[in-house]
Amino acid sequence: MAEPAIVIIGAGPAGVRAAQALADAGIRPIVIDEGRRSGGQIYRRQPDGFTRSHATLYGTEAERARALHTCFDGLEGRVDYRPETLVWHISDGQVWTLGPDGHQSIPYDALILCTGATDRLMPVRGWHRAGTYSLGGSQIALKAQACAIGSQVVFLGSGPLLYLVAAQYVKAGAHVAAVLDTAPFAARIPALPKLLAQPAALWNGVLLTRTIKRAGVPILHGVTPLDITGGEEGSGAPDGAGVDTGPAARDGRSSSRAGTVDTGAVSGVTVRTADGGERHFACDAIAMGHHLRPETQLADLARCAFAFDPAVRQWLPVRDPDGRASVPGVYLAGDGARILGARSAEASGRLAALAALTDLGFPVASVDLASLRRDVATYVRFASGLAQAFPWPVEQAAALPDDAIVCRCESITAGELRATVTDTGAQEANRAKAFSRVGMGRCQGRYCGLAAAEVIAAAAAIPVERVGRLRSAAPVKPISAGSAGKAGA
Amino acid sequence: MTARFVRLAETDRPALTLHVDGAPVTALAGDTLMVALLTSGATLRQSEFGDGPRAGFCLMAACQDCWVWTEEGTKLRACSTLAESGQRIVTTEPDTTWPNQQ
Prior knowledge:
Chain A is α/β, with parallel strands linked by helices. Chain A folds into three domains: 211 residues, FAD/NAD(P)-binding domain; 159 residues, 3-Layer(bba) Sandwich (FAD/NAD(P)-binding domain); 74 residues, Arc Repressor Mutant, subunit A. Chain A is built from 16 helices and 24 strands.
C-alpha cells in the first residue's frame, strides 16, 4: 500500500518521540514546528554561538534533553522536518501552514497534535505593566538568551515552575527579590500520597526550595496578590526586603508608591500574607503564572470533542488512554492534550504514534503499549497531586478589583467584564467575549480566557463549566492579510 | 533609558549594530530583537489602549505583546525574530496601509 501521510505538529518531547516511533516503523512523517530548532519550550535549544552546557541549561533534566535532541538530530533524512512553520488552520483533512517558503496545505491520513502549553495566568491588578512576564517567558529569557527579565525579580503564582525558574535564576546569578506562592503550605500534605508517584520529582522540588532559601531569598506561602505597583524604575528597597504598607499605598489603577513617578513600569508588588498582614516587595520585574494550560486551538479546529476536567478547571480535548481524539485519524499527545510534564510527553508522544500505526494496520507490540500506558498513568497521578498542592486560586478571580485589567491585549477591566454579565445577561464565554471583547485581542484569549471564565462564573454565580470555553478561530495566530490571501496558491 | 533585561552569561558573542527609532543600538549575534531592545531600553512599545508601555510577556510567540515594526511597516514579533546587523526598527506603528488600499 502507499505510505500513509502522517503529520506531527510540534517538535517538543511528544512530537520528537512520535516522529521516532514512526520513523522506526519505516514511515517518513512530516514534522511541523514553529520553533527555529527542535526541543519544544522545555528543552528549547539556545541559538548557534551560545556555549552553556546541557547541565547549565537543563539541570537535573540535562540527560533527557540531550537524549531528545540527539534523537531528533539522528532522524535527519527520515522525517520531513519543517521548522519555523506555523500551522494556522486545520480543515477538510488538511493542515494549512505558513513557513519560510510561504503558504501550503498538507493533506494527512493521520494527524498527531503535540502542540505544547502556555502559562496559565490569574490576573493581578497592575499585571499589564511593562516588566511583568509569564513564568515560562522568564525561563525562556534565561535558557534561550542568557538574560534575566530584570535586575530584581519577584516570582509570583504557584506550581512547580515557580520554584524551578526561581532556582534557575538564583543559580545563574540573577537577583531574586522573593518567591510568593499563592498556595498555602498545608495544601501539600494531603497531596503527598499522589506526589509520591514521582519520588525523584518530589525530591527535586525539595532541592529547588533549598537552593532558593540558601541564596537568602524569602519564600512566602499562602499569599494573596493585591497590586503590581508602578513607579520610577529602581525606586524602593534595593535589597528586595518586604516592607509593611497600608492600604493607602494602593490608590487605584495607576497606583504608585509615595515619592515616585508612575512610569507605567513595574516597581514592586504588594501581597496580603497568610497571617493577614500586607507586605510590599520592590522589584523591576515579575514572573507570574499558575501551572500551564494546553494549546488546544488546533484540536478544536480539527473538531475534536472537549470535556470539562474539574481537577484543573479546564476544558480538555477528549482522548482515549493511547491519545486517540474523538475524530478518527487525529491523535493528541504531550502537554497540548493535558498538562502532565515533559517526561509524560515523551511517553504519550510515542503512544500516540503507536496508536496511529495500529489504526493504519501496522503491527505494534502490545507489551510496548502496556508499558507506556503504565508510565502515563503514573504521571496522571503525580499531576493530580500537583493540582491539589498548588491550586488554581479561583477566589482571586472573584476578588479581583473592578479596575484591574483582565484582558491585557485590549485593556479591558474586571469591572467592564462583570458589567457585561449583569447588563447583557451574557454568561457563556463566547457571548461575553462578543459583548466585552475579552478574549478577542491579539493573544486570542490564551492569557485571559481561563481567568475571564472564573470572573464571569463568580459574577453570574454559576459553576465555571457552565461558562464554557472560548471557541478557537483560524488563523490561530495573527498572519498578515496579504499572506492569507495567497492561501492555497 | 535604563535597560530592562540583564545579561547573565554568553557575552562573548560578536557585536552587531541595528537602529531603533533612528538611534544605533548594539546587540550580540544570536540576540532576539526583544533582547536587543530590552538590554538597551526599558520598553518595546506603547499599549494602543493608553494603559502605558509594554515590554513583552510570554517570549514564546503566543501573546503578541512584543510587536515592533520595520521602518517600512512590516510587523515583527520581537521575541521570535533574531536581531540582525543593519535592521531599522521602530517602536510605533508606521502609517498603516490595508491590502485593499494599495
